[in-house]
Design a protein that fits this description.
Helices cover 42% and strands 24% of the residues. It is of the alpha+beta class.
Length: 117
């Protein structure tokens, strides 16, 4: 079984649907992304590098675009969201807006493309 598919299958609702929604959207935005692992997490990978991971936690969810720069750019659009250098936390009641998520994924894809030429 693929890493992301297996991870999602092991979640209970509503986490299963929430996490699936974000991974599905990322796969639509970057059709050549593949399931794998990055930093020990189930993730979509693009051109051999971590693109994005969304994980369920005991207090909600965390989004990891594997780029401190992408997080820093996105957090300005996410008033009230908690973040670390590498990730953004959110909850079922206050999910990351899909347009911001789209910019995060597209920003990470652009970083990978720029790095690999």
């Amino acid at each position: 079984m693929n890493e992301v598919t297996g991870y999602i299958a092991g979640l209970d609702e509503p986490a299963r649907s929430t996490v699936r929604q974000f991974f599905d959207r990322a796969a639509e935005l970057v059709p050549h992304a593949e399931e794998g692992r990055s930093y020990g997490m189930a993730a979509l990978r693009y051109r051999g590098r971590g693109l994005v991971s969304v994980v369920a936690t005991k207090n909600g969810y965390s989004l990891f675009p594997f780029s401190a720069e992408v997080v820093a750019r996105a957090i300005d659009d996410l008033s009230g969201f908690d973040s670390t250098k590498g990730g953004i936390r959110f909850t079922e009641a206050a999910p990351i807006p899909m347009d911001v998520f789209d910019r995060i994924v597209q920003g990470r894809r652009s970083e990978i493309d720029a790095a690999l030429g």
